Every structure is written in C-alpha cells, then in structure tokens.
C-alpha cells in the first residue's frame, strides 16, 4: 500500500522522511528532537559540575561555583539560575533522594553517582523552580546525553516522568504518611539528617528557645541567604554597593545587604575594603572590640585572632584596631590558610597587623598574658551556617561533635592563659550545639580562678543598629537564622580579673 492509499490520505513527510505536524498553522522545527536533547544548557551544566565536584572531589560549592560560571561565561540571569539550581539541589538532597527512592527500581546506592546528581537537578527543577515540567525533563535529559551518555538518559527520563506526576507537597505527604517520629517528619520535610534535627532541637532548648521553633529554624536553613557586606571601618565605603542596588543592613552599622548579582564586580569588594561577611560574624567581632577593659597598655592594646583563617573577622578587627592605635596578631596553623589571612588583611595598614603560623593551643605558653583582647573563633561543625554551606549537612556526622571537643577546649584554655589581667576573651562558634558552646565554656572555666563570664547579650546590643537582639540567655548569647536572619553564632565573653 502506497502512502497515498493509506487511510487518511497522503502523509506529510519532509525530505528526510519525517512526518510534518498535521496542523497547517504550526511550523516544523529546524532541529530534530534527538539533536535538541543532546545539548547541555550552560546554566544547568554549571550546576551539574558543582554537584559532581562536591560529591566526587569533596569540594565546597561556594568555591567551585564562581569558577564554573566564569568558565561557561554565564550572564547574570543564567548565573542566578545556576546558583539556585546547584544550591537548591544540594540543600534538598535528602528529601529529593527520598522521593527518587520511590521512583527508581533499585537502591539509589546502586546508581552511578553522576546519574543520581542529574536526577537531583531534574527533581529540583520539577519540585521547586519555575521551570515548566517539559523543559525540566527535556533539558535534564539533554544534559545527561551530553555529559553521561544516551543509555543513562533514558533512565533519567523515565524516573523524572514519575517524579513529575506529583507536586512537591503531594510527595511530602506520601513520604510522611504513617511516620510518627517528629524528628523523622522534620528530617523529610526540611531535608536535614535526623541527627542534625535532634542536635538543633537540643540547641534551641539549651539556649532558652522553645523546641516548637525547630521547623522555623530548619526552614530558615533552606532559604537562600542574602549576601551581607561590611565596609572596613576607616577604610571602606558602601557607596558603590548602594549605587548598585544594595540596602543598608538591619542589624549592624557599616553593613549592607546585596542581592543584585555578582558581588565580585564591585571594585570596593575586589580591593578588600568592603568584604562579604555574615552579619552574625560582624556582630561578634565588634562585640569583642566594644568591651570596656579594666586596663589599657601605655602603647595601645594588643589583640589576637587565635583561629584567623580565612581572615574575615581578622580584617574587621584590624581595621577597628587601626582606628584606636592598637595592633592585631592573626594566628593560623596552616600556611595556605595563613596566606588567605594575609590577603584578607591587605587593605589594612600593615603596621597594624602581623600573621603568626602555629598551633593556637601553644599560644598561652608562647605569649603568657600577652594580649588584651582575644578572639577564639573555634573550629566547629558549622551547624549554624548550613544555609550558606549547603553541602555540609550531608558531610558532617554526630561523631564530629566528639572529635572537635578537645580542640575547642584546648584553644580556649590557651587563650585564657594568653589574655592579660583586665583583658577579655571572646569564645565564638558558628554552631549552637551545647557540646560546642556552653559545655566548652563551662568546662574551661571549671577550677580556674580569676575569670568572670560577662553578660554577652548587652554587649551585642551595643554594637547593633539600635535594636535589642534579645540574643542573651544567661551570660552567653546565641543568634539564630529564623530570628535574626544571621548564621547561628554563639558568643561568650570571659574577662580575666586577676593574674
């Protein structure tokens, strides 16, 4: 039977043998479907490269993303899309994996990690972005064909079609149906490992907050943070940032909130005179500088940033010290991170600061009673900065709390030996967990005479923009993402009253 004799009349085929659309009003695409889906959209390719680097190379998303954006020459809009896709897929990885587990016919651990990353990207587009379902599927399949292969792309297409049959809320309802454990429910709904949910519930209670705030805290962790800027006092200006669309910071002076694209395009940022720094970090550094001391050395005060890398708080402290005629030593044990500290301090008069490379736990013996103000920004799990480090929630384990404890206590003990009578030590972490905050302070002060735990809340209020932060609980202070819009910074101020 010839085409002309088939039911319905002659077929409408082009010279390549493909049948044209039967509607006369529609135009046939110049690109065949197979060719369209073999191409990787540059923005999605950037997001994929970030996820692969995080999973395969243990990289940090915030370090990989800018370089990948530059490599693929993304414009502002595409860069924003890539950022939301990569960060969003990383934050929601736990929930997305739970959804995918219901749509894949094998354990996810048996999937090639590259395929799983592509599925996570496709799922985020379907569940949480303003991307039409057909575009999310077509572009993810195209990405897979370009960078993984035609075979895996068929699997990805089939799985994402299953994902697209329900909305995100419908999937959440399906995941928590029959689950009674509130920790498990919060873990699934807000994509946090269960141990972190438990840890944050404990942290809220320890710092005087109701445990019912846990969902608000987890939700705040999943919100994309606005870039915070600080102008180094006496050195930088926010005028350029404000002209580019920034708005004044709500918590701390000389700060701004920037949501107008790549902050690296600002000359003031490139020069180091204006720095990207969370408002919580700004507040705790300024609080140390604001404490009234019982004494002042004849030649000015000597300050110490004991755990200085990568140097953000050191730069702010050094700028304040320069205004007062004081000096700062920035200590960092790793040489490559010490180089970052020197770079961060580059905008400040070099006569004001110096960098020491060495173990901070030895500072007490090296400089007994040598400093008036000491910042101990101790290495911690980073549970208070999960919104800025989307991959960290999947890397940390509960055992990290135990492993970091001796280091935190050793650093604080050294600082207490290195501070002069009348001076002050600020113990700071970007974690609210009691094992890294109040327990460390209590253990370090137990049995020591001549030290007093100051009221940290009023000092924080004194460096805020005229508002009460209500961050104090007992003598210490705790900031929160869901209350203050900052990282969950902990602050304890310890004054040495006698030698």
TrEMBL record:
GO molecular function: RNA binding; RNA methyltransferase activity
Keyword hit for S-adenosyl-L-methionine: yes
GO biological process entries: regulation of DNA-templated transcription; RNA methylation
Annotated keywords: Methyltransferase, RNA-binding, S-adenosyl-L-methionine, Transferase
Stretches with biased composition (Low complexity): 1-11
Residue span of region Disordered: 1-38
Biased composition (Basic and acidic residues): 12-22
UniProt record similarity statement: Belongs to the class I-like SAM-binding methyltransferase superfamily. RsmB/NOP family.
Pfam families, per the entry: Methyltr_RsmB-F, NusB
Domain SAM-dependent MTase RsmB/NOP-type, first and last residues per copy: 202-497
Classification via PANTHER family: NOP2 YEAST -RELATED NOL1/NOP2/FMU SUN DOMAIN-CONTAINING, RIBOSOMAL RNA SMALL SUBUNIT METHYLTRANSFERASE B-RELATED
Active-site residues from the entry: 430 (nucleophile)
Residues noted as binding S-adenosyl-L-methionine in the record, renumbered to the chain: 307-313, 332, 359, 377
Name the record gives this protein: 16S rRNA (Cytosine967-C5)-methyltransferase
Keyword Phosphoprotein: no
């Amino acid at each position: 039977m010839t085409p002309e004799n088939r039911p319905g009349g002659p077929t409408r085929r082009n010279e390549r043998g493909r049948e044209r659309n039967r509607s006369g009003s529609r135009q046939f695409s110049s690109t065949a479907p197979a060719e369209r889906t073999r191409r990787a959209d540059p923005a999605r390719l950037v997001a994929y490269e970030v996820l692969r680097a995080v999973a395969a190379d243990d990289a940090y998303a915030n370090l990989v993303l800018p370089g990948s954006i530059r490599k693929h020459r993304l414009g502002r809009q595409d860069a924003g899309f890539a950022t939301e896709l990569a960060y969003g897929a990383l934050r929601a990885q736990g929930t997305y994996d739970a959804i995918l587990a219901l749509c894949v016919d094998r354990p996810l651990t048996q999937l090639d990690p590259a395929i799983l990353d592509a599925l996570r990207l496709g799922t985020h587009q379907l569940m949480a972005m303003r991307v039409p379902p057909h575009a999310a599927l077509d572009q993810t399949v195209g990405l897979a064909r370009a960078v993984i292969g035609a075979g895996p792309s068929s699997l990805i297409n089939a799985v994402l079609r299953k994902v697209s049959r329900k909305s995100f809320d419908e999937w959440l309802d399906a995941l928590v149906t029959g689950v009674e454990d509130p920790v498990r429910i919060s873990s699934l709904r807000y994509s946090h490992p269960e141990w972190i949910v438990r840890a944050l519930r404990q942290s809220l209670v320890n710092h005087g907050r109701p445990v019912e705030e846990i969902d608000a805290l987890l939700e705040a962790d999943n919100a994309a943070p606005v870039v915070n800027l600080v102008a180094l006092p006496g050195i930088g200006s926010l005028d350029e940032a404000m002209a580019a669309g920034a708005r004044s910071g709500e918590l701390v002076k000389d700060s701004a909130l920037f949501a107008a694209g790549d902050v690296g395009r600002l000359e003031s940022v490139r020069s180091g005179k204006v720095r990207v720094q969370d408002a919580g970090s700004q507040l705790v550094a300024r609080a140390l500088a604001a404490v009234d001391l019982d004494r002042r050395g004849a030649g000015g005060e000597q300050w110490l940033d004991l755990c200085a890398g990568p140097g953000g708080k050191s730069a702010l402290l050094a700028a304040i010290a320069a205004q007062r005629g004081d000096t700062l030593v920035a200590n960092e044990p790793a040489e490559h991170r010490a180089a970052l500290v020197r770079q961060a301090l580059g905008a400040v008069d070099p006569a004001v600061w110096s960098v020491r490379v060495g173990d901070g736990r030895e500072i007490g013996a090296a400089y007994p009673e040598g400093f008036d103000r000491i910042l101990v920004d101790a290495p911690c799990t980073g549970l208070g900065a999960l919104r800025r480090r989307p991959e960290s929630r999947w890397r940390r384990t509960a055992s990290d709390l135990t492993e970091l404890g001796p280091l935190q206590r050793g650093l604080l003990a050294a600082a207490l030996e290195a501070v002069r009578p009348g001076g002050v030590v600020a113990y700071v972490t970007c974690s609210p967990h009691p094992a890294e905050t109040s327990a460390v302070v209590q253990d370090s002060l137990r049995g020591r005479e001549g030290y007093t735990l100051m009221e940290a809340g009023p000092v924080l209020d004194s460096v805020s923009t005229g508002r009460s932060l209500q961050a104090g609980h007992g003598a210490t202070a705790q900031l929160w993402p869901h209350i203050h819009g900052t990282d969950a910074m902990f602050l304890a101020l310890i004054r040495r009253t006698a030698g």
